[in-house]
Amino acid sequence: MRRLPDPELIALVREGSRDAAGVLFDRYWEFAWRSAYAVTADRSLADDAAQDAIQRAFAALPRFDATRPFGPWLKRIVVNRAIDQLRRSSRLAVLDETAPPKWDLGQPADADVRLWAAVDAVAALGEAKRVVVVLHYWLDLPLDEIAGALGIPVGTVASRLSRALEELRLVLEDERVV
Amino acid sequence: MSSELERLLRAARHALPGSDAAATTRARTGALAQVGGKRRPRSRSAAALGAALLVATGLGVGLGALITPSGTAAPAPAGVGFLPERGWSVLQNGGDGSPARPAAAIAANVSLSPADGSDGLPYATLRALPPHGIVMVVGFVEREHDHWQDNRFPRRGLPLDVRDAAPSIEWGVQVRPERPLGQYQLLAAVNGYNVDVNLYFGAARPSQRQFDAAQLQLDRLVVRAAPPRAGAPRALSLRPSTSAATAPTRVIDRTFVCTVAPHVGVRFFEVSAVTGFRDPDEPKRWRWAAGAEIEGARLGFASSRAGAPMERLTRWLYVDPETCKAASGRVLLSPRGLVGGAASQLQGTTTVGSDSYRCVTPRRFLLRVRAVFRTPTALRVQHLFAKRWLTTSTAAVATEVKLAARTEAGKQLAYTEIFQSGKARLFASKTCKFE
C-alpha cells in the first residue's frame, strides 16, 4: 500500500480505509508541518495549523477532485491555516514587545552555514516581507496565489518581494554569504 | 547576484527542522478520525465549526426555538447563539460548546445561501455578499480546557462592542480577493465560553451605518453561563511523576509543574544563562559550555548545559523531581512577549550565569524542558549531590536545551535557550527583575 500512487490511496480512503489514510498521512504530514512552520516560524502555531489543515483535507477527501494532485491542494490549505494562525498571534502581540521570529534550527554543520545565514536574514525581515519571501521561495507559490492568500494586490506582493530581496542582498553581502 | 541569492533562498528551506513526535501523533489521530465516518469536529476556528446547521429565519423567533435542535441534530448548548434582529437571518448548529463539539452561530442581514447548510463558514453567501451585506460567524467553546487558548480571549461583558473588533484582512484569508470583503474579528471570554466573533462586510471599508447595523445584531448575542461539566478538566491534570522516565530518545521534551517554597515570605525563581566561553590560550577548548538554569531560593528546578564535554561536567540536564512533577499543559518555547536577549559570557557565583532575572511566581508554575542530545538518552532518577535528580546519562551530550516557564494561568514568565555553539539567550517577563 505504501507504493500506491495518491489517487489510488485517496480512493481507498474514501471507501473508509484507515490503513490507506495512515499511508497518505505519513506521506504528507512532514511536508504540511514544514510548510506551516515556514510561514509561522513558531512550533506551536505550526502544530496547530498543520494539524487543522490536514484534518480539513482528510475530512474533505470525499469532495476532492482526484484528478488534481493532492500535494498542492493540501499546501494551499496549510498556507491558509498558517496565515490565519499568524494573523491571530500577530494581533495579540500588538501590545507586546515582540522579538523577531526565529526558526528553531538547532546547530549547523559547516556546510549549512550559508543556508542558516540566509534563514536568519529572512527571519530578520519585517513580518509582511518575511511571509512573502517564505511563500514564494520556500513554498513555491506564484505571486498571484500569494496575493489571494494574503488578500492583497499582486503589485503589493511584487513590491514587498523586491524590497525584501534588496534587504537580503545587503545583509548577506555584508556577511560575505553571497 | 540575484540568481545566486534566489538559489540560496530556495535552498535555505532545507535547513528547517521537522515536527516532533507528539505533534505528529496528535495530528495522525485527528486525521484518521476523519476517515470512515468517525469525524472529530475541529475546535479552534469558527470557520471549522458546525455541521447540521439549523435554520431559523425571520422575525421574532425565540432563543428557545433557535437553539432547540430538530430531527437528527445533536443536542444544543444551554443558551448560546443569536436572537435575530429585524431583517436578519440566523443559524445555529447543534454543538454543545465542548472542545469536541463547539457551538456555532451565524447571523446575516441577507438571505443565506442554501449551499451553506452543511459547512462551517457560509462561503456561498460570502462570495455573493452585496456591498450592504453583513455576515457574522460566531464560535463558542467552553473555557478551562486549554489555558493557552483561554489566554487569547480577553474577558468582556455583554453586549459585545463592535468597536472592539480588529481588522483581520492583512494576514487573513481573504474570502473574496477579487472584491475584498471587510473582515473583522472580536475575541471575548464571556460567561465561561471563549467567543470568537468573525464579521464580514460586503464592502472592504464598511460605513458607520453598517457598523451600527452589526452592533444591533451583536446586541442580541446570547451567552448564558456554561454549566459545570462532570469530569471536565477544570484544572491542570497531573500525570504521575514516574512518567518522566521514558525510553531513550534524542529529544527530551517534558513539562512539569513546580512548587515554589516561600523565601522570606516571597515565592520566586531565578532564571539565568551564560554564553559559552572558549579558553583564550586554547581556542579549540571550551572553558565552559553554554548553560541555563531555573532555580528557587533553596533548590534548583532545572539546570542544563549544552556543548562539548568538559572536565567536571558529567551530565547535561537536571530536573529536581521533588519540586517539579510531570504535568500536562502547553508552555511556549518562545521569547514572545518577554524582554531580554543574548546572555553574557560571565559566570555567576551562585547561578549558572551572571545574567539572571528574578521572577515572583504563584505557588506553582509550569516548566517545560526541551533538550536535544547527540545520542539517545532518558531522564531517570539518580542520587547525586546527596539528593534525587531526574537526569540523563553521563554519555549523553546535549546539543541544545530550552527552558520555559509560565504560570498556570498562562502568563509567560521566562524563556532561555542554549546551544552547543556556545550561544545562549535569556528572556523574562517585564515583571521580573534583572539581577
Give the overall silhouette of chain A. Answer: elongated
Largest interface, counted by CB within 8 Å of the partner chain's CB: A-B, 74 and 68 residues
Separation, N- and C-terminal Cα atoms of chain B: 47 Å
Coarse structural class of chain B: mainly beta
Largest sheet descriptor of chain B:
8 strands, antiparallel
Helix content of chain A: 55-70%
Alpha carbon gyration radius of chain B: 26 Å
Strand residues, percent of chain A: under 5%
Count of DSSP-assigned helices of chain B: 6
Secondary-structure element pattern of chain A, one letter each: HHHHHHHH
Largest sheet entry of chain A: none
Mean pLDDT reading of chain B: 74
> Any low-confidence stretches of chain B, pLDDT <50, length ≥5?
38-78, 230-246
What does this structure look like?
The complex is a heterodimer of chains A (178) and B (435). Chain A has 178 residues and is an all-alpha fold. Chain A has eight helices and no strands. Chain A is elongated. The N and C termini of chain A lie far apart (45 Å). About 5% of the residues of chain A have low confidence. In chain B, the strands form five sheets. Chain B has an eight-stranded antiparallel β-sheet, with no helix packed on it. In chain B, strands 1-3-4-5-8-7-6 form a seven-stranded antiparallel β-sheet. In chain B, strand 14 and strand 15 form a beta hairpin. Chain B is elongated, with a radius of gyration of 26 Å. The two termini of chain B are 47 Å apart. Chains A and B meet through helix 2, helix 3, helix 4, helix 5 and helix 6 of A and helix 1 and helix 2 of B.
